[in-house]
Design brief:
The complex is a heterodimer of chains A (359) and B (1065). By secondary structure, chain A is of the alpha/beta class. Helix content of chain A is 24%, strand content 32%. In chain A, the strands form 3 sheets. A 10-stranded mixed β-sheet of chain A has the order 10-12-11-13-14-19-18-17-15-16, with helices on both faces. In chain A, helix 8 crosses helix 9. The model of chain A has no long low-confidence stretch (mean pLDDT 97). With 1065 residues, chain B is an alpha/beta fold. Chain B folds into 6 domains: 108 residues, Rossmann fold; 65 residues, 2-Layer Sandwich (Dna Ligase, domain 1), CATH 3.30.1490; 131 residues, ATP-grasp fold, B domain (D-amino Acid Aminotransferase, Chain A, domain 1); 161 residues, Orthogonal Bundle (Carbamoyl Phosphate Synthetase, Chain A, domain 4); 137 residues, Rossmann fold, CATH 3.40.50.20; 169 residues, Rossmann fold, CATH 3.40.50.1380. In chain B, strands 27, 28, 29, 30, 31, 32, 33, 34 and 35 form a 9-stranded mixed β-sheet that branches. The longest helix of chain B has 19 residues. Chain B is globular and about 75 Å long. The mean pLDDT of chain B is 92. Classes of the chains: A alpha/beta (359), B alpha/beta (1065). The interface between A and B is large, with 53 and 56 residues.
Chain lengths: 359, 1065
């Protein structure tokens, strides 16, 4: 069946419908990863967005459920050049076609994803609609597209209840703002007992549990929408518990301590972004997925200083908090998908917790 | 870290002559590196024995030495030029081995020269089997169970322990020379004995056979600060067991999930870090298809064929970045030249699919085994880019120029289901065509996979193409169907064939429905950033993004496609120089080519690069978009010449010599008319179509005769026939190859073969120099030793040649280059061949005369006159030194290939000897070609009757040099009669010890074996020559070559070679 992708600037792409056939309006973003389509689909940070994969051949190795980064796929829509007719991998349990249908994700295949990417690159991220309906006039559609906002999505993706991954090592409280599973897994693998808290948890409850460290996860949406969470994070900041934050967690900590964030023109989404550790000068290739960034000009050095920067565009990629055991990064050391080069940051976090504990 | 200021003068070592396993990719890497160094103000000294390369141009390096790649030469060069550093990682295995030898001898330290790029410890850790294995074990990277052995006994014992089959890999060899898979002890003994001999250090690795696993490669970069990135990963469609150079390769990997992809990526980074590599590195993996188990197969601590492919597949200039890293820069300090916005410290993301196909030489070596093994056999490769795999494969297939345009091109329809299943067990170059037939016959994916181990995903893609064939055959051709056929890159001619329409009808239907090619950019970043480098590939069904309005005049330069025997790197040299020359004249230059190994497909050579097949349809698509003001075809070999007619039909003016005149040189009757008009004699001959006509013509002319198809390359299918039986056989062979052109039968004249390249402006000619061949006529010019200046011919002959060249160039209205081959019999000069285009000898003669022929020809094409370009027309004065071009062969790589020389070209490359005296130049040329004598001072002579007299003289001279001569009965008798002391050896069919045992005993330096003319009906000579080649013995099959060799040995002091900087010529 024919499907259409209509952008708010009036561009229309015609392709084939995949997944669910319902109509959806969402923010259209692109991801440049060549592998890891399932991890992208199940990354909660994509809630409220429709993802375009710039790599044209998707679904080649099927679906392996254990690679899911959360319990379900989150994007509002999925945009690809071509879906593989057969999956081929020893672990594959399903096809991507079935997967999209099962979770009722609408999508479109067979469009010129490169042309779409160029539009998003030049004009910036914009809203769009995936539909199987052939509109005679866009006059009715475009105002609806322009009016769409992502809204508060953290609430949608966070876990409903607290849960514990038992282990006998350090106790880590993970505030789930839309966490990818590999964050908890990375800590758990390193011996930590991880308690996952819903995003709405009060700081007092976390502090009362006396964790050795607090982990703020990644998550979707505009950080400035998360006003009440920011309040709680400010309280966490005030403690002396070591904190490590990723992506949205990083942005929220910055907002909680007086810095500002802004929306990037078209974000960083992919597995090839070079980040420079400003302390050592070393460059790591990182996995990224963010549409907002911390404005370094807004930083008060007495509170936080840049720790990482993006080698391509110089945007902030991490902060070190002055006089605190707080370290936050914009990129994804938990990878999945993407390079594992910065997974050493989990070791650093563990080391910080140990030092604090033994002090 | 910024540039190291103490690096001021760097010696770059090239890779020498083109052989199988070490080809044009190193010219590409070396050229890019030299330009990268010069850009930093470094003084570059270049050493490479290969004159056909671009890197040996004086505008690429400051000092250029085209000298043999031996330790002695490098040592002398270092003493004379005093570089402070040597960059060894860009010249392939040859350059690396040389540098290692110098380091081990302590020479570099003694002369305060450092190796930059990668240290000798690193090279040793990666290349030495034992050290590599222990390093991998140390960092927990798995390698297949293996043992380095130095003897046959140890190898057998270990194989018995781990069980057959086992893989054998000799240390320090290139292209997997001497390696293979042994399924039993007998095979082990054969391959291992060979491998031990070929290894520079006498070591062979015996390892657990992981054949059938997925073969995955990663190209990795690392700088001195320890920053690492992966440029690209690649998946071989052919599982482990076929050399990656002979495999169909796809980039990026298609069947790996993120878990597998990242697992291997992390491993590659661990390895490059542990080895402390600074520069580029290639890591090859075997990945178990049904688990996460993997083994590291090999690490190449240098740029390689794979890195050239990865550079072209991603747009990331590996060699350029590696050179900058060698100077001390870190990845985040080096700009990404493609985007102009980002830095080299990022990983390219592809938004397309790349397929590489090997170009195998089985059309040249008809008797050779087509099986593919761990020993590489391909002479070159093609690459294609598309937004889907099927399309990339279809484009790559038609880029091969091997009469293949679809998966129907090899006809297996006669095979039964059972026969196909059996045939699938054999891994050869036609396997994907056979799989297509298997699918047509209804054989299941699983059955095909069970035998071939090729991943189901790829089999399904082949099935999609087969289904499209069926659809086109059986369904009505709707616009929708046509659109889909074009999306997967079915060419119009194939669609026409399948639908029973004409190609024009298909094209018209396409245009009527708006189905046209669009061009997308290779930008390293999947469109995330705006890129500034116009490097394009075509797709159907998408938006075009190539910008075509530059306001300048545009010229289209057609490249020469894959490297093959008969059309090598020299045509890339010509294409690149032509492009540069047009650029200097203010033109916008556009290159179309499909060879990832070459300089011409580097992103910054032309203003625009279209990475496309060189077929009329693909070229037309570019033409429709770009509307060039003209096209040049005379620099891209036969590939480009073949497109002339098509270009004219498209309305593109052919710049330079017109198409009619190109035709006139190829069309026998037209050409005869011109010769007659010019008063130039040629050997008598006839044009025929059938074997009967050929025999009639041959008898009328009198045997021996030359039989060849018209419009050929490198003498393909050309043979000397001495009787009717030969004629019948040759015509049979010619007709087996698709043949639309008539066959030529010429009287064979035995005389001195002479060759000239000339520039003609329509009135005047410029001949840089006359070259003569050492071997008598009858051996292909590409396989002959060529000498400049031609010392043995009279001034009268030279004057005649100059005059004939002038007459021919004028009558053919040549504007640009012409290449003419003559035969001189006494003072009589005959023309045997005229090519109104550039030739194999152009780079060589340009370099040794210092006359930049290609730029001159280009300017002439643009209307300049020779007189106005600062040259006196006519034959230029001779140089005061000699230059000898020596052919180099790759026979040891191609099992079953007959090595005897004849009218069909067999060499893969060439090297140059240049010196003040002829003898020294000759000696250097032999040395450069790997003939390093004397060693054991034993030789075998077995010649045909007509060569016996000359053989006696040669034998006497070798005897005087202290050689012990063995000969078979007939030759021995002749030698004894002439008082040469000779030892009789038994013939092959006689009992042991016979001639074969002698050869296999490793004590023979040289075999002189001249086969009888005509079809060799006895197989003895063939077996002797093959065994000698495979034992590493030098074999000469022409008496003239033998004479030249002994002359060079008699007169040269190997220790006192002089070096010549050709940049000063």
């Amino acid at each position: 069946m024919k499907a259409f992708l209509i952008l708010e600037d009036g561009h229309v792409f015609t392709g084939t419908s995949i997944g669910a056939q319902r109509e959806v309006i969402s923010e259209i973003v692109f991801n440049t990863s060549m592998t890891g389509y399932l991890e992208v689909l199940t990354d909660p940070s994509y809630a409220g967005q429709a993802v375009t994969m710039t790599y044209p051949l998707i679904g080649n190795y099927g679906i392996c459920y254990e690679d899911m980064e959360s319990e379900r796929p989150w994007p509002d829509g999925y945009i690809v050049r071509e879906l593989s007719r057969i999956p081929s991998n020893f672990r594959s349990q399903d096809t991507i076609q079935n997967f999209l249908e099962k979770y009722e994700i609408p999508g479109i295949a067979g469009i010129d994803t490169r042309a779409l990417t160029k539009i998003l690159r030049e004009s910036g991220t914009m809203n769009g609609m995936i539909t199987t309906k052939e509109y005679e006039s866009l006059d009715e559609v475009l105002p609806r597209l322009k009016a769409y906002t992502t809204g508060k999505v953290v609430e949608k993706v966070t876990c409903r209840e607290k849960k514990v991954l038992e282990n006998d090592g350090l106790k880590v409280a993970l505030l789930d703002l839309g966490a990818k599973r590999n964050i908890a897994r990375s800590l758990h693998e390193r011996g930590c007992q991880v308690t996952v808290y819903p995003a709405g948890t009060k700081a007092e409850e976390i502090i009362a549990a006396k964790p050795d460290g607090i982990m703020l996860s990644n998550g979707p949406g505009d950080p400035k929408e998360c006003t009440s969470i920011i309040e709680e994070i400010r309280k966490l900041y005030e403690t002396d518990i070591p904190i490590f934050a990723i992506c949205l967690g990083h942005q929220l900590m910055a907002l909680a301590t007086g810095a500002d964030t802004y929306k990037l023109k078209y974000g960083h989404r992919g597995g090839n972004h070079p980040v420079r550790d400003l302390e050592t000068g070393k460059v790591y290739i990182s996995s990224q997925n963010h549409g907002y960034a911390v404005d370094t000009k807004s930083l008060d050095p007495a509170v936080a200083v840049p720790a990482f920067e993006n080698v391509n565009d110089g945007t902030n990629e991490g902060l070190r908090y002055t006089g605190k055991n707080i370290f936050t990064v914009q990129f994804h050391p938990e990878a999945c998908p993407g390079p594992q080069d910065s997974s050493y940051l989990f070791d650093r976090f563990i080391h910080t917790m140990e030092v604090k504990k033994n002090a | 870290m910024p540039k190291n200021p103490s690096i001021k003068k760097v010696l770059v070592i090239g890779s020498g002559p083109i052989v199988i396993g070490q080809a044009a990719e190193f010219d590409y890497a070396g050229t890019q590196a030299c330009r990268s160094l010069k850009e930093e103000g470094i003084e570059v000294v270049l050493l490479n024995s290969n004159p056909a390369t671009i890197m040996t141009d004086k505008d690429i390096a400051d000092h250029v030495y085209i000298e043999p790649l031996t330790v002695e030469v490098v040592e002398r060069l270092i003493i004379e030029e005093k570089p402070d550093s040597v960059l060894p990682t860009l010249g392939g295995q040859a350059g690396l081995n040389l540098a290692m030898e110098l380091e081990e001898r302590g020479f570099l330290k003694e002369h305060n020269v450092r190796l930059i790029g990668t240290t000798s410890e690193t090279i040793k850790k990666a290349e030495d089997r034992l050290e590599f294995k222990s390093t991998m074990e140390k960092i927990g990277e798995p390698v297949a169970a293996s043992l380095v052995v130095e003897s046959l006994e140890d190898g057998i014992a270990f194989a018995n322990k781990i069980g057959y089959p086992v893989v054998l890999r000799p240390a320090y060899t290139l292209g997997g020379s001497g390696g293979g898979i042994a399924h039993n002890q007998e095979e082990l003994e054969e391959i291992l004995a060979n491998g031990l001999r070929l290894s520079r250090v006498g070591q062979v690795l015996v390892e657990r056979c992981i054949a059938g696993w997925k073969e995955i490669e990663y190209e990795v970069m690392r700088d001195s600060a320890g920053n690492c990135i992966t440029v690209c990963n690649m998946e071989n469609i052919d599982p482990v067991g076929v050399h990656t150079g002979d495999s169909i390769v796809v980039a990026p990997s298609q069947t790996l999930g993120d878990k597998e992809y990242q697992m291997l990526r992390t491993s590659a980074l661990n390895i490059i870090s542990e080895l402390n590599i600074t520069g580029g590195c290639n890591v090859q993996y075997a990945l178990h298809p049904e688990s996460f188990e993997y083994c590291v197969i090999e690490v190449n601590p240098r740029v390689s064929r794979s890195s050239a492919l990865a550079s072209k597949a991603t747009g990331y200039p590996i060699a350029k970045v590696a050179a900058k890293i060698a100077l001390g820069y870190t990845l985040d300090e080096i700009p990404n030249a493609i985007t102009g916005q980002t830095m080299a410290s990022f990983e390219p993301m592809l938004d397309y699919c790349v397929v590489k196909l090997p170009r195998l030489p089985f059309d040249k070596f008809i008797s050779a085994k087509r099986t593919l093994t761990t020993q590489m056999k391909a002479t070159g490769e093609v690459m294609a880019i598309c937004d889907n795999f099927e399309g990339a494969l279809m484009k790559a297939i038609r880029s091969l120029e091997q009469h293949v345009d679809s998966l129907m091109s090899y006809d297996f329809t006669a095979l039964s289901r059972e026969e196909i299943l059996k045939q699938l067990e054999v891994v050869d170059d036609r396997r994907i065509w056979l799989i297509a037939e298997a699918i047509r016959k209804g054989i299941s994916y699983e059955e095909i996979h069970a035998i071939t181990k090729i991943d189901l995903w790829f089999i399904d893609k082949i099935a999609i193409l087969v289904e499209m064939e069926q659809a086109l055959k059986t369904q009505e051709l709707t616009a929708e169907l046509l659109k889909e056929a074009k999306r997967v890159e079915f060419p119009d001619n194939v669609i026409a064939r399948l639908t029973g329409r004409t190609e024009e009808e298909i094209r018209d239907m396409r245009y009527a429905n708006g189905i046209t090619a669009a061009y997308k950019m290779v930008d390293t970043c999947a469109a995330e950033f705006a890129a500034s480098t116009p490097y394009y590939y075509s797709v159907f069904g998408s938006e075009n993004e190539a910008e075509t309005d530059s306001g300048r005049k545009k010229v289209l330069v057609l490249g020469s496609g894959p490297i093959r025997i008969g059309q090598g790197i020299e045509f890339d040299f010509c294409s690149v120089h032509c492009t540069w020359a047009f650029s200097k004249e203010g033109y916008e230059t556009i290159i179309i080519n499909n060879n990832p190994e070459t300089v011409s497909t580097d992103f910054d050579i032309a203003d625009k690069l279209y990475f496309e097949p060189l077929t009329p349809e693909d070229v037309e698509n570019v033409v429709r978009l770009e509307k060039p003001d003209g096209a040049v075809v005379q620099f891209g070999g036969q590939t480009a010449i073949k497109l002339t007619e098509a270009l004219m039909k498209m309305g593109v003016p052919i710049l330079g010599t017109s198409a009619e005149n190109v035709d006139a040189a190829e069309d026998r009757e037209l050409f005869d008319e011109i010769l007659e008009k010019c008063g130039i004699p040629r050997p008598k001959g006839h044009t025929v179509f059938t074997a009967e006509e050929a025999k009639k013509a041959a008898n009328e002319l009198g045997y021996p005769v030359l039989v060849r198809p018209s419009y050929v390359l490198g003498g393909q299918g050309m043979q000397i026939a001495i009787n009717d039986k030969d004629v019948e056989e040759f015509i049979g062979i010619i007709n087996r190859i698709a043949q639309e052109h008539p066959i030529l039968v010429d009287k064979y004249l035995q005389g001195k073969e002479i060759e000239v390249d000339a520039v003609c402006d329509g009135e005047d000619i410029l001949i840089p120099g006359i070259m003569e061949h050492i071997e008598r006529a009858g051996i292909h010019s590409g396989d002959s030793i060529s000498v400049y200046p031609a010392g043995s011919i009279s001034d009268k002959v030279k004057a005649t040649i100059e005059e004939y060249t002038r007459r021919l160039a004028r009558s053919l209205h040549v504007i640009g280059l012409i290449n003419i081959q003559f035969i001189a019999v006494g003072d009589e000069v005959y023309v045997i061949e005229v090519n109104p285009r550039s030739s194999r000898t152009v780079p060589y003669i340009s370099k040794v005369t210092g006359i930049p022929i290609v730029p001159l020809a280009t300017r002439v094409i643009l209307g300049h006159k020779i007189k106005d370009l600062g040259y006196q027309p006519g034959l230029q004065p001779e140089a005061d030194y000699y230059a000898v071009k020596m052919p180099v062969f790759s026979f040891e790589k191609i099992r079953g290939a007959d090595i005897s020389l004849g009218p069909e070209m067999k060499s893969t490359g060439e090297c140059l000897g240049i010196a003040k005296t002829f003898n020294e130049a000759l000696y250097k040329a032999f040395l450069g070609a790997g003939i390093r004598l004397p060693k054991h001072k034993n030789m075998i002579i077995t010649v045909r009757d007509e060569d016996k007299e000359e053989a006696v003289e040669i034998a006497k001279r070798f005897e005087a040099l202290g050689y012990r001569i063995y000969a078979t009965k007939g030759t021995a008798r002749a030698l004894l009669e002439a008082d040469v002391s000779v030892r009789l050896t038994r013939k092959l069919e006689q009992e042991s010890p016979n001639i074969l045992d002698l050869i296999l005993g490793h004590k023979i330096d040289l075999v002189i074996d001249t086969p009888s003319q005509g079809v060799e009906h006895s197989h003895d000579g063939f077996i002797i020559r093959r065994n000698a080649i495979e034992t590493g013995v030098n074999v000469l099959t022409a008496i003239d070559t033998a004479k030249a060799l002994v002359t060079s040995l008699e007169n040269t002091d190997a220790k006192a070679l002089t070096l010549i900087d050709i940049a000063k010529i």
